[in-house]
Structure formats: C-alpha cells, structure tokens
Amino acid sequence: MSVGSGSLESLRELNRLRVVDALRRHGTLSRADIARVTGLSRSTISTLVADLQDRGFIIERPEDDPPRTLGQGRPPVLLRLDPSAGIAVGVDFDHTHVRVAVSDLSRTVVAEASVETDVDHDAPHALDMAADLVRAALAEAGVDADRVLGVGVALAGPVDQAHGRLYDSSILPGWQGVDTAAELGGRLGVPVHIDNDANLGALAEVTLGAGRSARTAVYVQMSSGIGAGLIVDGRPYRGAAGVAGEIGHVTVDDQGMLCRCGNRGCLETVASVPAIIRLVSQTRGEVSSVERLVALATGGDLGCRRAIADAARVVGLVVGNLCNVLNPEMVVVGGDLSAAGELLLGPLREAVMRAALPAATAGLDVVAGELGDRANVLGALALAIANSEQAVAARIAAAGEVG
Questions:
Q1: Mutual orientation of helices 290-298 and 273-284 as an angle, nearest 10°?
Q2: What is the pLDDT of residues 335-381, one digit of tens each?
Q3: pLDDT confidence of 111, banded at 50, 70, 90?
Q4: Sign of CA dihedral 376, 382, 385, 387
Q5: DSSP character for 272?
Q6: Closest by CA position to 30, among listed 85, 70, 73
Q7: What is the mean pLDDT of residues 177-199?
Q8: Of 90, 255, 358, 386, whose CB neighbour count within 10 A is largest?
C-alpha cells in the first residue's frame, strides 16, 4: 500500500513540530539530544534541522571551545530556536502589583517591567495597566507585536481550568464576572492562557529553578497571599476543579481574624506578608514594604526576625501535614518573603519535620526557590510557550510555502 505525498508531508510537518517542541521545552539541545528526546533517527533529525534552518526557525549556537586533549573530538554544536520564530509574553497579577516579561521561545527573557497597583478591587484598571506594560516591554525589546504567539497569565486566585477564567470569589472581589483571557486578549489581539499564580511559580521552579531534579514537589509561595503549587510526575496538579493547593485558606485559628475569603483564622491572616507587616508595625512604627521588613530582619531587628520566624512555623505546620498527604521529594519556598533566607527557611523546615511523619520526610529537601519574585511571571511565560504549538505550526507551514 503506497503512502500519498500529502500523508508524507503531514508526517514531515508533525516531525518538524516535534523538533521545535523539544527545543521549546529544553531551550538548547544538540542534534543527538533531539534524536534522543524525540525518538527520531539521527539522519531524520539532520534533515529536519536543515529544513527548519532554511525556514528561519533554528540557529546553531556553538559552545565556547573548551580545552581539549589528544583524541577528544569537538564538542557538539548546540541548536536553539531563532528569536524571530516567535515571542511569548508572561503577565503576573499579584494582589499588589502587575509584572510582565517578554521572551523568545527558548525562554530567553528580553524585557521585563512591573508597576504597583491595587489588583484585587479594580480588574479593568489592572488589565489596562498590564496591556500598557506589555506594549512598553515589546517596544523596549524592539519586538513587533505581530511576532507575539501568546500570553500566559498568573492570577492570585482560584482558576476554573475548564472555562479558562477565575472562579467568582471574595478573594479577588473586583474580578467577579470578568473573563480575564477574553478581556486581555481583546486588548492585545493574541491568545491568552491563565492559571493560578502558585501553579505557575511551581512550574517555573521545577523547570528552571531549585526543583529541577524533582518529579513530585510542593512549591510554597509566601507573598501578599500564601499558596502552594503541587507538582506530581513533573506536571502541575490542579485537582478536580482546578483549586488544589489553596493552603492560604487552611484554618489555623477558628477564632482568628476574618479573612478576605469569608472564613476566620486562615493561614494568610497570620503568615502572609501584609499580616507580618501589620504585626511588626504595631510596635516599631510603620514598615512600608516586604523589602523593608526583610532589610530590618537581616540587619538584626529582633521583632522583625521573630515575626518572620513565627509565620514560618505556622506555614511549616500546614506544609508538614500536606507532606503527609502528598509525600513530595522536595518543598521549594518562594515568593517575596523568601528573600529572608534562613531566617524564614530554618524555622519553616523545622516545623515541617516536626509535623510530618518520619517516613514522609525521609530524604525530603526543604529549599529556597531560586527565582524569587520572578517565579510567577516566568511560569506564565512557560504557560504561553507550552500553548504556542498551533501558532508555531502555522508559521512553519507559512515559511515553507514562502520558501
């Protein structure tokens, strides 16, 4: 039975996409690496790479020649996606700021920008600011808007994955009824994909940061809110309704302060950055920001050090119980407050080990994130890149027609 030319071309197109996808996921690979990742033969890879180079999608990036001894061959030539192949945008809507980043499909960030604003109560204004920041970042990078393949968005609230929008919730009162993907997509004219901020922070840390070696991990985000991103078998676990990991609303004091979610005594009411700042400001005067809080603590202020340690212990208690359920191999602590280093990590680690079963913590690493407050926006970029396959396929096909 013969195979028609159309079928052969469809197979070639599929294999081209497999090569591009390997480079999207890994950033830089040799031809042998691509063959290993895709399962295609080396001769097929050589042909596909040559074709994609002709179409302007792949470029070679030789490694700096290391010293060689007699008998050693040259190092392999590394390949990456050409920056002109497409651009991704990440947007992080935190409770108190909007941050954007622009990268090529190999995850090289070419521009970033951020601005402080009240995100929670005015969605249209926050969306307008995000669109303005994206345009400014593209201009700074010298990138035409028509090269943008998609936008990933990190939202500090529960996300309905089935419908691609936030659940109506008192956590983000100004966003009720707002179709974030459609609204931002309308402002920018490109596809928009959304997820919870902690999920995307987790994705960034296990892809680019401290959790690169972990298949099962918990990412704990300590910022203006508290959330956890769960990684199972190397992928974000979102749960049946997409709200897994909302540890900020675990009750730790049923007679405690009223939380923005409507319950009392949630973890966020005692251990989020605003809660810690509110506490220390009662005794030492106003502390205006998390940067100021961390600076005072690392400079020896006993009240700030104690407040951070107490918050860490409560978070560690909740995370320790989560470890009994999930049994991760790694806990990665990120967010704005992670800048406090061991002042935060030490008591949190101790509380995790005390709360969890010994079997659940055998071999468990509790480490600081490597990406800091950029984790969410880098995860949003990864989300945009992961969802760019159709746009890339169209551009590859168009390039072939032109060629």
A1: 60
A2: 999 999 999 999 999 999 999 999 999 999 999 999 988 999 999 99
A3: very high
A4: negative
A5: S
A6: 73
A7: 93
A8: 90
State how far the Cα of 212 lies from the Cα of 207, in Å rounded to an integer.
5
What tokens appear for 228 in the block? Answer: 């956890």
Whole-number Å distance between alpha carbons of 280 and 305: 10
Q: What is the DSSP letter of 229?
A: E
HSE-CB of 371 using CA atoms within 13 angstroms: 24
pLDDT for position 240: 86
Answer with the residue of higher pLDDT: 91 or 170.
Answer: 91
CA proximity to 331, closest of 310, 341, 316, 314: 316
Q: In the 8-state DSSP scheme, what is residue 76?
A: P
DSSP symbol at 365: E
Residue 93 has pLDDT above 60, yes or no: yes
> How large a percentage of the chain has pLDDT more than 70?
93
pLDDT beyond 50 at 69 = no
Tokens of 160: 């309905």
What DSSP designation does 367 have?
Answer: E
Taking 90 as the threshold, does the pLDDT of residue 76 lie above it?
no
- Whether 90 has a pLDDT exceeding 90, the answer reads yes
What is the SS3 assignment for 243?
coil
Q: What is the DSSP letter of 254?
A: T
pTM of this structure: 0.81
CA 175 to chain centre: 21
Measure the CA angle with vertex 119, ends 153 and 202; round to 5°.
40
- Pair of tokens at residue 155: 């939202």
Question: Which residues on neighbouring strands pair with residue 220, listed in sequence order?
Answer: 228, 333
Count CB-CB contacts under 10 A for residue 306: 15
Token digits for 370? Answer: 């490597």
CA Rg value for the chain: 23
Angle between helices 31-38 and 5-26 (to 10 degrees): 110
